[in-house]
Amino acid sequence: MDLVIRDVRVVDGTGGASCRADVGITGGRIAEIRRDGPALGGRRVLDAGGLALAPGFIDMHAHSDLALLRDPDHSAKAAQGVTLEVVGQDGLSYAPVDDRTLAEVRRAITGWNGHGDDIDFTWRSVGGYLDRLDQGIAVNAAYLIPQGTVRMLAVGWEDRAATPGELDRMRRLVADGMREGAVGMSSGLTYTPGMYAEDAELTELCRVVAEYGGYYCPHHRSYGAGALQAYEEMVALTREARCPLHLAHATMNFGVNKGRAPDLLALLDGALAEGADITLDTYPYTPGCTTLVAMLPSWAGEGGPEAVLARLRDDTVAERIRHAMEVVGADGCHGVPIEWDTIEISGVSDPALAPYVGSTVQASADLRGEAPWTTARRLLLDDRLGCTILQHVGHEENVRAIMRHRVHTGGSDGILQGTKPHPRAYGTFPHYLGHYVRELGVLSLEECVAHLTGRPAARLRLPDRGLVREGYRADLVLFDPSTVAAGSTFEDPRRLPAGLPHVLIDGRFVVEDGRRTDVLAGRAVRRTPR
Q1: Which of left, alpha, beta for 37 (phi over 0: left; psi -120 to 50: alpha)?
Q2: Taking the domains of the chain in order of start, what are their residue ranges?
Q3: What band does 50 get if pLDDT is binned at 50, 70 and 90?
Q4: Sheet containing strand 343-347, strands side by side
Q5: How far is CA 474 from CA 43, 136, 145, 504, in A?
Q6: Could you read off the pLDDT of 57-79 as tens digits, one per residue?
């Protein structure tokens, strides 16, 4: 054996009972799991001393599209035990693009991934992006075709139905991306321009995804007012398209949904009983995280980022935007009138605006003696739409109820930009294990590991990942169940976790004795052909 991990508690990712064993690794794969008999021998032996050994964690909702390229260390995820991230989320990412669209999408999601001035955008296709990842990254990555970017290419930023010719082009773009290795398609149906697509258009694109064995991952049209109807819409749409459905960050937020997680779970249970193929992901925190510009009504986003800025500069139009947000409830804010004391500025692109970070819009406005919309409008204009926010609108009882469900998986939704990012970016997986398993007992250790490994691997149709099983890739994490914990907090969001001393990808240590090595063992994980 190249490596033997001796005397380890194997938590294999199936949800079944754990067991003590020696695990031998050769050629980057698990060669033997020996529960009885003489100890395994190898060229290197790691005495685990009863640490838990699990498959590497799979982050089903990541925003590391550019971070994987700019940050070889990427300890935000590697130190959590994440060995695979799914990027291309929420309908907006960097492939497929042309020169015009690339410039537009870089502007649109600066708050998620930065300007990208430090990235050499040599690719334009999905396959080109995956090839770039194959040059060596910290952890593995799979890619979802972003439906909003596809619509940008074919239709632009107009709020209208696609023409038959435009729909045909979108079908071809999705088919190309699937052939090149994408695992499915994402949407951001509260983000422009993806939110301008009608259900019939989305259904046609989902049919293409299904033909290639992928899945649809929507950030659906509302997590606030009308959230349950938005979930029903996605279930019905994918049933019509005969496409597997994975619900992104499947929360029930805002005051209108307090205590309503059982309604969502009943909807899902009914669909599952009828044969629907549905999974979901959540992060184990109550606040959400996005960009401030995402809170605006959809009509304000028509035409792209420069058109948004022009509307914000116009006093008359800006007043219409304020009224939609504060009185009516903008679709960008999930149909709920915005509460400025729940909107915390977490990051800005312009360093001169740093004093706003860490305060709510309401608190900043009070400090300046002005209305909160005045503060928000100034931030949007001065930061050229680049500021990110935390939105404190979640409910702990909903978080716990949803994470118990049998189709639940873990996803950080981690945005790594900003001075004060959401702690989920650095803490999601140890927070599940430390807080919700050890401290609260919401899930057993074996159940939780299955939610974070075997179940997402099955959704991604990975034939040799997600389980501790002979013949599988040695993407593994060793952790101490008695001490594992998220280090990140809302006050100190980039602190690394505790209790995860070793992480391996293809049998190579990317974290060893709690320290990040210089190994870049990650590669693109492409869709497995049927």
Answers
A1: left
A2: 55-285+392-460, 289-390
A3: confident
A4: 288-291, 388-391, 343-347
A5: 16, 17, 28, 7
A6: 999 999 999 999 999 999 999 99
Q: Which residue has the tokens 């970017």?
A: 149
> Which CA distances in Å does 239 have to 49, 115, 210, 226, 263?
48, 38, 11, 20, 20
Residue 528 has pLDDT above 90, yes or no: no
3-state helix, strand, coil in the chain (%, to 5): 40, 20, 45
Instruction: Kindly state the helix (H) or strand (E) to which residue 23 belongs, with its residue range.
Output: strand 19-26
Q: What secondary structure, in 3-state letters, does 472-495 show?
A: CECCEEEECCCCCECCCCCCCCCC
User: Which residues fall within 8 angstroms of residue 412, CB to CB, at 6 or more apart?
Assistant: 59, 61, 62, 77, 82, 283, 424, 425, 428, 429
- 227-254 in b/e burial notation, b at 16+ Cβ within 10 A? beebbebbbebbbebebbbbbbbbbbbb
Residues in the chain: 530
Say if residues 25 and 502 touch (Cβ distance below 8 Å).
Answer: no
| Residue 262: cis peptide before it, omega within 30 degrees of 0 | no
E-assigned strands of 312-419? 343-347, 388-391, 408-410
Query: Encoding tokens for residue 94?
Result: 């960097």
How many other CB atoms sit within 10 Å of the CB of residue 458?
15
Give 449-467 pLDDT, tens digit per residue: 999 999 999 999 999 999 9
Report how far residue 427's alpha carbon sits from residue 119's, in angstroms, rounded to the nearest whole number.
26
The type of residue at 522 is G
Give the class (CATH, top level) of 55-285+392-460: alpha beta
Contact 504, 510 (CB under 8 A): yes
